[in-house]
Amino acid sequence: MAEEIESKKQWYVLHTYSGYENKVRENLISRITSMDMENNIFRVVVPEEEHVQQTKTGKDKIVKTKTFPGYVFVEMIMSDEAWFVVRNTPNVTGFLGSHGQGSKPVPLLPEEAHRMLRSQGIQAPKRDIKFEVGEQVEVVDGAFLGLEGRVEAIDAEKQKLHLTISMFGRETAAEVDFDQVDKIN
């Protein structure tokens, strides 16, 4: 049952009024509980970055800025009820990738969602894929996107692979996360 729910979860992007991202997050979290949607709507994320900014007195202070102003990311299982709860949350203007008139939105691609989560320091769910030394894999995210490599070593505890990638006619060593590669069939 839990595996079935995990496979149906997808990330969607909400468009909000700029400056209301955190308020939308708070409202949506309270609506999830009050409208009994815990089994359909799971996480609500407002991506932020920290920057060091100097004050007028010359002291440094850390300031958080929105990575995507006007947008909120929601992990959910799309259903009519979940769509209605999210869409009718105050200050939500709609879903990104929706064509209006009640049409269901398009979810983020898994690699887009993983990239966004990693940028926020949130670990993506661990993949239960068995890699073997010597097998070929394709890099689907990160600096080596689109390249193929051979698995040289596996660190299952840290979910990392050590690869040899052919780049510019040379063999190059690379370390990638399990969720950054797919097996080549």
Q: How would you explain this protein's 3D organization?
A:
With 185 residues, this protein is an alpha+beta fold. The chain contains four helices and eleven strands, in the order αβαββββαβαβββββ. It is globular, with a radius of gyration of 20 Å. The strands form three sheets. A five-stranded antiparallel β-sheet has the order 10-9-8-7-11, with no helix packed on it. Strands 2-5-1-6 form a four-stranded antiparallel β-sheet, with helices on one face. It has a two-stranded antiparallel sheet with strand order 3-4. 21% of the residues lie in helices and 36% in strands. The chain has helices spanning 2-8, 21-34, 80-87, 110-119; strands at 10-16, 41-45, 48-54, 60-66, 71-76, 92-95, 136-139, 148-155, 160-167, 170-177, 181-183.
